Amino acid sequence: MRFVFQAVAAENELYNHLLVGMEMVSHLILRGGIYESLYLRGRDTSLHMGEFSTLSYMESALVDLYSEILSFLAHSMSFLEKATVRRAACAIFHPDAFEAYGSKLQALERRAEFSVSNCERHLAQLGRDDLKTQLRNTEEIVNAPVIRTDLRVAHLWQMAEARERCNILQWISTIHYETDHYNARKGRLEGTGDWLLARTQYLEWRDSPPSMILWLHGIPGAGKTKLLTKVVDDVRQRLDDSQNEEGLASFYCDANRSSHRNPLAILRSFVKQLSAPLSSSDGRRIMPVVAEINSESVLLGLVNSYPQVTLVVDGLDECDHETRQELMAAMEKLRLADSGLLKIFLASRNDMDLADAYQGGYHIEVCSGDNKNDIEKFVEFKLNGNKWCQKYFLSSVRRNIVDIFKRKGQGMFQWAAIHIDELLNLRNNSDIQVYLDDLPEGLKNAYDRVWQTIQSSVNNE
User: What is the per-residue pLDDT for 146?
Assistant: First the structure.
């Protein structure tokens, strides 16, 4: 770890030498152009040998100076195009790579200035009548628009900074949180979850001044993840419409992926998202971090840098049972800290430890009646999207399908998703009615039926 800090320090020092060198090169190129305009362009070759020898010496001095400048620029481009690790290695093992160029350029600059002084003495001796004209031309050259190399340097520096910021963010967390949100949101129909955004508890949580936690809970398959994506989109829309720059970070826990059930991974993802918010393309909120990142303290610092921050966690029950208390304690600590306004939205099943922690505060339980209209939209969407259904299903059968799914589904999206695809494989209205009559109620019975179907297929084979 000490080696890493040394590498970063050495690379910064090397960048400083590079910028100093670039500033010197810009100055030398401009001065060289002026010298050429004054003394080398349009000279009469019939001038006597004394002046011709002086001009030749100055031309040689400028050629040597330009050669060293090109060597410096080539070395600079090669260094900036290296990968991060190779630049760090170069900074450690060749710390004076650009500093040496400075000494050489200064020596060649003195030589060029000496040759120019000789030319000036010869011109004064010859009493050239056009000296004033040349001076006026010099003023025009200096004042004319010139494409400065320092613009190129600034661009290169910005590219290096952006690349470094990306590397730091990737090191903090490798979770693709935007992809997770997209996958969780996929399939959510327009209007689904509107009932949640209209709930009094939600509106008080979202709009009231104090920092607080709102817990959304319910039975498995109730569509809590889709409801949580609705919350994320609602907060995001409000941020887009607001003049204030506020922070938003979300995380979707998954018991089947080790990277998505670890409390530290969740905190680090929050740090990454708040370090590079959606409203800021340059990610300038990146804070100094160390290898053993103290996610709580860094996250607290980031929360303090915003007027308001919203943290959203889906599937808290899928976080490691042995360690999720650490995450819960960390979020409670953030809420109670003397910091900016913090809103935390959690979604999970009704696990006992979670109920003990959050049932006494703001909470919304997803009941069977809450999702009935959303399930109706989902079933009708599937029916309308099936060409066979549109052509051959009787309207009374379609209405019966919707009614039975609303009644037997008990507010569980997962139950409806399991059975609607099976039903759409049927081609006879009477077979559909038999299927509807035999539909089991509840998600457990639905899974048992799927398992029995799989077992029967295996036995038949």
Answer: 45
Q: Which two tokens stand for residue 15?
A: 């960048």
- Where b means 16+ CB within 10 Å and e means fewer, 323-336 reads ebebbbebbeebbe
Give me the residue label for tokens 């490691």.
Answer: 320
pLDDT 10s digits, 347-379 = 999 999 999 999 999 999 998 788 888 888 989
What is each CA distance from 367 to 220, 275, 364, 415, 420, in whole angstroms? 11, 37, 9, 14, 21
Give the list of residues 6+ apart from residue 385 with CB closer than 8 angstroms, or none.
Answer: none
Q: Which residue from 436, 368, 364, 362 is spatially nearest to 397, judged by alpha carbons?
A: 436
HEC profile of 94-137: CCCCCHHHHHHHHHHHHHHHHHHHHHHHHHHHHCCCCHHHHHHH
Question: How many Å separate Cα 146 from the centre of its chain?
Answer: 37
Q: Tokens for 21? A: 């060198």
Which residues in the chain come in under a pLDDT of 50?
1, 3, 5, 44-51, 128, 144-150, 153, 281-292
- What's residue 50's pLDDT? 47
User: How deeply is 18 buried, as exposed, middle or buried, from its count of CB atoms within 10 A (0-12, 13-18, 19+)?
Assistant: buried
CA distances from 282 to 165, 246, 415 (A): 8, 16, 44
Tokens of 351: 């696990």
Q: Is 313 helix (H, G, I), strand (E, B) or coil?
A: strand
Cα-based angle 63, 68, 72 (whole degrees, multiple of 5): 145
Is residue 412 within 8 Å of 223, Cβ to Cβ? yes
| Inter-axis angle of helices 200-207 and 224-241, nearest 10 | 40
Predicted pLDDT of residue 351: 92
pLDDT in the model for residue 195: 93
Chain position carrying tokens 């362009």: 41
Identify which of 330, 265, 251, 344 has the alpha carbon closest to the alpha carbon of residue 297.
330
CA separation, residue 284 to residues 38, 99, 274 (Å): 47, 29, 10
Beta carbons within 10 angstroms of residue 453's beta carbon: 11
